[in-house]
Design brief:
Mean pLDDT: 83
Low-confidence stretches: 136-149, 151-159
Radius of gyration: 15 Å
Helix content: 10-25%
Structural class: alpha+beta
Number of helices: 2
CATH topology: HIT family, subunit A
CATH superfamily: HIT-like
CATH class: Alpha Beta
Length: 159
């Protein structure tokens, strides 16, 4: 994740929020429509427990902000949140809409079967989420929205 920086678009998704603590990408592929990945963009950490209290509060506030937008835009009956990092050990949270109609596994956990999202629908959804999340300007807090500080000190170094 660090190597992708803070691009507006990657092969994996379209950025819908450049937050003070995290960036959020609507995924080009996912278990179903409404799958967003929220990525911590401070120094490299793998666990939320590696964050200072103010960083943790900010990160989870960004995650919940995205969850609210996902719920509003997709009309989700439920939103799932997963913070895993088994395959990619960098702090990130999967935020997935669970739909009342058309859910791929109603009432059951989603399988990680990646389905390509139709391009035009993906772009429409990204624009709508970006509007809900107030995307468009630089990240709050004066950080460069294109630079990822991941390659700085590792978690707990110099703290």
């Amino acid at each position: 994740m660090c190597e992708l920086g803070r691009a507006a678009e990657t092969p994996y998704g379209i950025r819908v929020m450049a937050g003070e603590f995290a960036d959020s990408y609507l995924a080009t592929r996912g278990p179903q429509r409404g799958y967003v990945v929220v990525i911590w963009h401070g120094r490299h950490v793998a666990e939320p427990t590696d964050l200072a209290a103010d960083e943790a509060s900010g990160y989870w506030a960004d995650v919940l902000r995205v969850g609210r937008a996902v719920q509003a835009h997709f009309g989700a009956r439920k939103v799932n949140y997963e913070t895993l990092g088994n395959a990619v050990p960098h702090l990130h949270t999967h935020v997935t809409a669970r739909h009342a109609q058309g859910d791929v596994r109603p009432g059951a956990p989603l399988e990680h079967a990646w389905v390509e999202q139709p391009t035009e629908e993906l772009r429409r959804d990204a624009r709508a989420l970006g509007e809900l999340l107030g995307v468009g300007g630089p990240a709050r807090g004066g950080r460069d929205p294109h630079r990822s500080p991941c390659h700085g000190p590792r978690a707990n170094e110099g703290r």
